[in-house]
Amino acid sequence: MSVQASPTLFMAAAAAVAARSDVVTLKRVARLHVWTHYGGLGEKCGRVRCCWAIGPGWAGTGASPPRRILSGRVTAEVIEHLERLALVDFGSQEAVARLEKAIAFADRLRAVDTEGVEPMESVLEDRCLYLRSDNVVEGNCVEELLQNAHRVVEEYFVAPPGNISLPKQDEQQPFSHN
Amino acid sequence: MLGRTLQEVSAALKQGQITPVELCQKCLSLIKKTKFLNAYITISEEVALKQAEESEKRYKKGHSLGALDGIPVAVKDNFSTSGIETTCASNMLKGYVPPYNATVVQRLLDQGAVLMGKTNLDEFAMGALGSDTGGSTRNPAAHCGIVGFKPSYGLVSRHGLIPLVNSMDVPGILTRCVDDAATVLGVLAGHDPKDSTTIQDPGKPFMLSSLTDVSKLCIGIPKEYLVPELSSEVRSFWSKAANLFESEGAKVIEVSLPHTSYSIVCYHVLCTSEVASNMARFDGLEYGHRCDIDVSTEAMYAATRREGFNDVVRGRILAGNFFLLKENYANYFIKAQKVRRLIANDFVNVFNSGVDVLLTPTTLSEAVPYLEFIKEDNRTRSAQDDIFTQAVNMAGLPAVSVPVALSNQGLPVGLQFIGRAFCDQQLLTVAKWFEKQVQFPVIQLQELMDDCSSVFEIEKLASVSLKQ
């Protein structure tokens, strides 16, 4: 048995599942797939796949999404990078086109001569920032604050496991998990 | 009673012509009748009646808190209100109930104001009719025939205002007349230890003096604001206003704000960048919407944010992140900050040359019908509609839109006055003089309420067009 479980086995299963499930949906849905493969010592390594269902016609066909074929500044790499940084997906070709337009719009700033001009961070830059003295004057509102969270255990906000990064685009497989 | 100014209503309450509870009930009744307008996201009926009852007790004892005691107010739904849902009109904050009041809300309540509810807005205030980060206290005011005032940046606390662009956001005040705006400003302005971007002077209430002599005034007319897209009607009102000042003895001169045409682009970069940062807090963990995905933190954040934000918000976050990328930071973000300084300097130069107040249009035309409006996307609309109001936010200056006249279609049109930084009182004094000269017709709410049968027809039409 190879160190990594054979990807082809999973791909076949994936394609079968994709063909069955209603992947073609107009509503954008994040779908997660857990693909485990075994390391040399038999350890499980859970890798999370995230596949945005980007609209009708793509998932399950094995074709790459149109967004890989681009002109202009917003390359596939940039898209991937931005989606990871922003943790917000483009979701459609229109969104990519909108970004390209936004960049083209912003490019108009090049026409302005800013030689020797300092960037302005705040209109109040000439004033001294007010600083409070470092004394505790309020707090003790744990219960109120915890009330707004969906998942809480005792005094903790509960998060899913961390240190699992979103998958790269070329590793995405269009199959759904349990 | 509901169509009167704040000061008139306040006087009526003091004299016992109407009680706070009666006033509150009338207000609630009108809100219900106009529900099809979808102006309110949350109507805080119980809270309002309770506050009205307390106000009534105070009036009976002769211990009213001031001009705002018993006055119905509404607050945009991006201001935190303790115990009352605050959503920013976004799925991301659906069901979010803040445990605290924004400072401005607290200051209104401390004066006895009665909170009727939370009003609607574009999601996270990102539309052309958004919050006063780009003009959206003044733009809607101009379209609706009321006074829309944007104070100087730093005068009014932003604590509790869910931020869009921290360096430009300002709570805006919408009232029927300039005096009312001054009354409210007197309550809201002043240092807040919870907002370190407020200036250190404490606030105090003030009364606007009535100008009788404008001969010492110098009014500036920025030539770059005369754009081809400006409707001829608005242009003519602007021109008439300038002539009015001149005929009363004021000095009216043409001035130049050379970088005006770059203000929208500059805003676009700075706004999307700050938005990308500000929206990062919405991850589903501590508050707000959370999706069901549990496999990893990043996956949960990503799905939560996709479900919680609409296209406009997501588009701005992505654009902002693009401009903030290492390879783009200097060419876009820093560049925009430099252009911002040039824009702010334009105003400084003009005010240093002896101009007291600038007079400009507020909007390109009267309000555009909904079906016409939605033909262009959000960024195009913002770029077009905020053209007169945006630069003011870049420079942090005070500005006020005053209704001037009804258009040929019978829709209101407003004009904008821009003042020097922290000279809000002077600005409002000039605006008050102008308001008195212009005598814009007072809204006849009684006719509106009596005409309710036709309202149900409008209701059907409104819901049809919204579905398209």
UniProtKB/TrEMBL annotation, chain A:
Keywords: ATP-binding, Ligase, Mitochondrion, Nucleotide-binding, Protein biosynthesis. It catalyses: L-glutamyl-tRNA(Gln) + L-glutamine + ATP + H2O = L-glutaminyl-tRNA(Gln) + L-glutamate + ADP + phosphate + H(+). The keyword Ligase applies. InterPro entries: Asp/Glu-ADT_sf_sub_c, GatC. SUPFAM superfamilies: Glu-tRNAGln amidotransferase C subunit. Pfam families: GatC (PF02686). The keyword Nucleotide-binding applies. Transmembrane segments: none annotated. It is found in: Mitochondrion. Its EC number is 6.3.5.-. Subunit of the heterotrimeric GatCAB amidotransferase (AdT) complex, composed of A (QRSL1), B (GATB) and C (GATC) subunits. Belongs to the GatC family. PANTHER family: GLUTAMYL-TRNA(GLN) AMIDOTRANSFERASE SUBUNIT C, MITOCHONDRIAL. Allows the formation of correctly charged Gln-tRNA(Gln) through the transamidation of misacylated Glu-tRNA(Gln) in the mitochondria. The reaction takes place in the presence of glutamine and ATP through an activated gamma-phospho-Glu-tRNA(Gln). HAMAP family: GatC (MF_00122). This is Glutamyl-tRNA(Gln) amidotransferase subunit C, mitochondrial. It comes from Felis catus (Cat). The lineage of its organism: Eukaryota, Metazoa, Chordata, Craniata, Vertebrata.
